[in-house]
Design a protein that fits this description.
Helix content: 10-25%
Structural class: alpha/beta
Radius of gyration: 13 Å
Largest sheet: 6 strands, mixed
Oligomer: single chain
Strand content: 25-35%
Strand order of the largest sheet: 3-4-5-6-7-8
Number of domains: 1
Distance between the termini: 38 Å
């Protein structure tokens, strides 16, 4: 069994949904581990300290990802999320308090 650890939480490689509690702190590069969860369908980072655009960018390689919930914070800007959404046309990128992007456009 493969286990992936992100922000002090362990995930079995077959996990398909991840949610991080409010105020979770992420070490630099922590999201790279999520890219090793091939069945991941949804991920929620709302109300966490996630500000790592490079880490979110690695989620583009997850073909099953359909829902991504994030806040605008640090490097995670509206422009970045719009570009990320355009590269992930099957994934709804929901920006807390702003709306949802699909294929780079507001849904």
């Amino acid at each position: 069994m493969t286990v992936v650890i992100v922000a002090d939480r362990a995930f079995d490689a077959t996990v398909d949904h991840v949610w991080f509690p409010s105020f979770t702190r992420f070490a630099p590069g922590a999201l790279a581990a999520l890219a090793r969860l091939p069945h991941l369908r949804s991920a929620s980072f709302a109300d966490t300290d996630l500000d790592d655009a490079a880490g979110l960018d690695q989620l583009v390689h997850l073909p099953s990802l359909r829902v991504l919930l994030v806040d605008l914070r640090g490097e995670v800007t509206l422009e970045f999320l719009r570009a990320l959404s355009a590269r992930m046309p099957r994934c709804a990128v929901t920006i807390k308090g702003r709306g949802e992007l699909r294929a780079g456009e507001w849904a």
